[in-house]
Amino acid sequence: MDSSYKAGPGLCMVLLQFLYAGQAVFTKAALMRGMSPRVFMVYRQTVAIILLAPLVSFSRWKNPNNISLGLKGFCFIFLNALIGLTANHNAYYQGLKLSSSSITTAMVNLMPAITFLMASLIGLEKVNSGSLRGIAKIVGTVICIGGAIVIALVKGPTLLNSLHSSSSSTNAPQNLQLGCLFLFICCCCWSFWIIFQVKVSAICPDHSYSTLWMCFLATIQSTIFALSIDRTKSEAWLLNTPIEIGSCIFAGVVGALSFTLQTWCVSQRGPVFSAIFSPLCTVITTIIATSFLHEELYIGSLIGGFAVIIGLYVVLWGKAKDLEDANKLLELNQDVELQRA
Q1: What are phi and psi of 113, to 5 degrees?
Q2: Would you kindly state where each structural domain of the chain is located, as residue ranges?
């Protein structure tokens, strides 16, 4: 019983990577059929809201806590929703449409390195260039960004599906450089969301309640954005195929489910444990996408993807050492307090 409980977070994170990979491939299939990424975002958020609202309402009814956001809290959540959900996911889906599902999941691994860089610039992350862990975080960030540049600028020979792509160009990236730029913007927005979440958590400790508000506001924001771009294309809002309908529902389910599972895994093992599984999503996505969507796999994308993953693990190693020291310091302070008592 104890061993299965210890294995639970690991199995949970593996399941999440399969869900993320399925979402990327399923969404790419819908976008390849002409679905607007902005409209997809609206439907995806709507499904997530429908699933999250009763769960959060039941949780608050079972454990009432009279938390009021106030004007300041509402403004913080609105900004977090605008950048961390609306801008983030719209950039993600646009990047997915212009590139490929395997490249998209590889680029997302940039997020921890960008988070470290942003946190360092605003003073939330202390960088000790004289320590091994500080050097690791700096070098890992450089490797990650270098790998992303290789993915965007270097194609090289086609390793897989080169024969299939000659007869069907719809499976090749429409604009790889622009797609990677959108994915880089997505990672920056995601990193901002993580950093800014500290302020939101301080104002509203009930994470499920604040998440529901963020999803609700992001749905409104995404709808306004989609209407402003696709207002003259009424057909863009029609779901004409089972793949389009199914991809919207599946993405919404994954969005709602991932929050619960991710939060539980982080509470059990910490944020570094959660992040080390993300390259698995890239591997799974590449296998599925090249097999079923016949996506091209370039040697430049493969080398760049490996570089991003290596850089990711170097950054995470440095962060893990920081967490170890922080935990040791916490235990030491607790021992001192017990001795005083």
Answers
A1: -70, -40
A2: 14-233+241-340
